[in-house]
What does this fold into?
Amino acid sequence: MDKKYSEMTHQELMDEIAQLKVKAQKAEQMGMINEFAVHERKITMAQAYMMDPSVFKPDDVYEIRNSEAETFRIVYMNGVFAWGHRNNGQEEEALPISLLGSKK
It folds into this structure.
């Protein structure tokens, strides 16, 4: 049985990410867009578990990685997820901390 990301060591997470990148590359080459997207999301989650959530604080604003000038204001943290608002919007959502870029 596979381990949860939260139970894996740093090295196990790195190995998992490497395997997922290979799977994502193969899916992309075969034109399997949905499978590629699933592997990309798994990579994002594994990367989140390699980060320190205590670094992220409520009311801090971060750029969102791989997006055009989008920002995210943290309301609260829950594990490796930052809950808050995108671009000062009203709708609350959760993002894995690995999607947060530099602090604004």
